[in-house]
Amino acid sequence: MANILEMRNITKEFPGVKALDQVNFEVEEGEIHCLVGENGAGKSTLMKVLSGVYPYGTYSGDIVLNNEVQNFSRISDSEKKGVAIIYQELALIPDLSVYENIFLGHEIHKKGIINWHDTKAEAAKMLKKVKLEIHPASKIIDLGVGVQQLIEIAKALSKEVKLLILDEPTAALNESDSENLLELLKDLKKQGVTSIMISHKLKEVIAIADTVTVLRDGKTICSLKASQGEVNEKEIIKYMVGREINDIFPKRLEKNFGDVQLEVKNWSAFDRKLGRHVVKDANFNVRKGEIVGIAGLMGAGRTEFALSVFGNSKSYDISGEVLVDNQRVSLKKPKDAIDKGLAYVSEDRKGNGLILIQDIKQNITVANLSKLSNYMVIDKNEEIEIAEKYRESMNIKTPSIEQKVMNLSGGNQQKVALSKWLFVEPNVLILDEPTRGIDVGAKYEIYTIMNELVAKGLSIIMISSELPEVLGMSDRVYVMAEGRLTGELPIEEATQEKIMEMATV
Amino acid sequence: MFNDLTKAIKENIRDYGMYIALGFIMIIFTNLTNGLFMTPRVISDLIDMTGYIAVLSVGVTLVIVIRHIDLSIGYIAGFLGAVAAMLTSIVEMPVFLMIPLILVMGTLIGAFWTGTLVAGFKVPAFVATLAAMTIFRGLLIRVTNSATIFTANDQFNAIGNGYIPDIANVPGLHILTLIIGGLVVALFVFLEVKNRIKQISYRLHVSTLPIFIMKLVFVSSIIMFFLWKIASFKGLSWTAVIVAVVVAIYAFVTNNTTLGRHIYAVGGNPEAAELSGVSVKRITYIVFGSMGMLAGLSGILFTARLQSATPTAGMGFELDAIAGAFVGGTSASGGIGKVTGSIIGALVMASLTKGMDLMNVGVSYQYIIRGLVLVAAVVFDVYTRNMHAKQA
Description:
The structure holds two protein chains of two kinds. By secondary structure, chain A is α/β, with parallel strands linked by helices. Chain A has 17 helices and 24 strands. Chain A has three domains: 3-241, 3-Layer(aba) Sandwich (Rossmann fold); 255-341 and 426-505, Rossmann fold, CATH 3.40.50; 352-424, no CATH class. In chain A, the strands form six sheets. In chain A, strands 6-9-10-3-11-12 form a six-stranded mixed beta sheet, with helices on both faces. In chain B, α13 (317-327) runs parallel beside α15 (363-391). Chains A and B meet through α10, α11, β20 and α13 of A and α10, α11 and α15 of B.
């Protein structure tokens, strides 16, 4: 097969950083091509060059699409040539209907007046293509993330896409939605659509890729062909990090479980906005020195469970008891929870985890400023010392602690978030998707830190959608489905199959 | 050396942009008015006429930082100014009692009206304060009975027109003003040096030594230049002293206290702040309370300056104050903004007015030009911010 795309010697520089350095990237027509690499390896930058986000002239090198050199100066240029890119953050308008979203920006119209009949009919066709059985008039806001992702693809198909680029399409999806999506990509392949998929989930990559290209530090490291048996996890990881990782999950030397640190009894949370219970009759505990995993599908109510316990009572009506060290406590606001030794590291770093426009040190200290202040006056020397301490101990890669958090990679942002919550010296650390969207190397570091913390007697509650992570790190696993804790398994008895069974009751 | 300088300017253009703009405007007006703009009387007057807007700018900076707006501050200032005038002239309350009373009233108005509506009932601040704007406009007309209230109290009028006493009697030169100037410069140099030593000890990025010294010399000479100008007129006015104290307090609180950090945290990301244990509600009440208090102060300054309270006092103050904050680098999207910047911003706007007055530019053109300057400042702000974001 011929190459549909060749990117030759692409170099893209930002002031002070070479994001892409003489990258060569070839995609065959009709294949599924996975692009992998650690965070900051240049994957997204490369795709932005391809789609015209970074216009012609801001990079050097050639883009050859369908044997023609292309000089895209905006996204619409690349769209005209059949390139469609779907970003990690979905770009649908929540309050508009499915069909309005599908044709947003390329409406079917005559002299500016939209033909709604054709629009609805076409939208229905596109939905069929992505095997979605929803009404085209449904509002996006009422649909799950998995469905939304498929609508994005339907939108791309409506533009007669030839080369579909997906940037971590499954990052926010649960297992069944992910499978769905991957099946669809295979289907589209049969229909002649070439796909490029950026992914951190190597299992998926192995399941679906015809070719895998590995980027590292802005350079192409290698291209592996599935047809020649080169695509396997060890190989890919080796090229990604430049070293072999034998243990994806660091071993804990010894496990010492103490008394129950946090217990939740008959916990229910009613979401006023949704008008339904998001958590129902949950009973839960975690001991000192223990990592408890909470597995479950997206929307099972795990984050809501954590947030409602953490005192975020504004959005929920709650009932039930929380006991810290066997003492009944009332946590009315996050401050109460923090004072009782709880910490919650958000799944949504950019949304409610970090203050992106502030620097590293301000983010680290914000949850516990009273510790370094006297009569409300902050001791800025101490603040610098503390930030430096965490930079070193957490291995936050940054030129300075005065760097704005928005300039850090996902892994380093997560380390800042962790530092911030360790600085409040919690007894119970709730980690919500602690390794989402971060690279293999940083994942390993975060796992190591978790192990060190429980060794010191902390209790960790880890909410995770990645089953290998749940199985690899937890001492005990709770499974959640539709707001209820549907199962509890000691790690010895936990298997992926059992968990999935409980998660889909 | 020259490369260092251009690099330093490039890196800090956002921080120093408005200082440069202010200098630029002053030089232009000095040229256009054949030096009239730089005379001691004009400089002194410029600072005094900025006073009542400057304190509003300080308050509204924090309001904008926490992603809100306050349109009511002009008429609240007008209303409280009128109340202050009545308290001193009609009730004959002593000034030292009247001032705290007015400040408390302002705080209560800000916290209980705006604060409750915005933080409690989640009414958009734009609407809540728009309502308050017309309410206090009405109240102002009520309390003044559509007539001007003259203030005959000398102490009160001195707040807007008086000057600090001198310690020595040198004709044509106000010695205490110069001494204060010297102390301010000494304090500035001391803090800068201390800060630099600290930064170096933590191996943080600092400008090169020649640049640093240049900055010290440059800023010190500007401070001394203006204080010398003022000293050769009648010395520091009480208005200038009050504004300086307000700015010093607010600058300290925003930069060095947990309250200040919480305010910026709420502005930077309210959800993250809430989850970090910061009560967004509490901060909202505090910021609007402080805004109300400063509106009260602004009312006192303005009424004292005019020596009377009028039924139209306060009209348009809010727009000048908000413009000052934006020109001073406060970000319209929240989370970023310094009170010192806003003071400079207010001075920029006042300089434009003063300069154009001296040149006899028609008032219609003045409005147009000030509008264009405001837009230019915000465009500059957005542009430099994007430039920095892209570098990352």
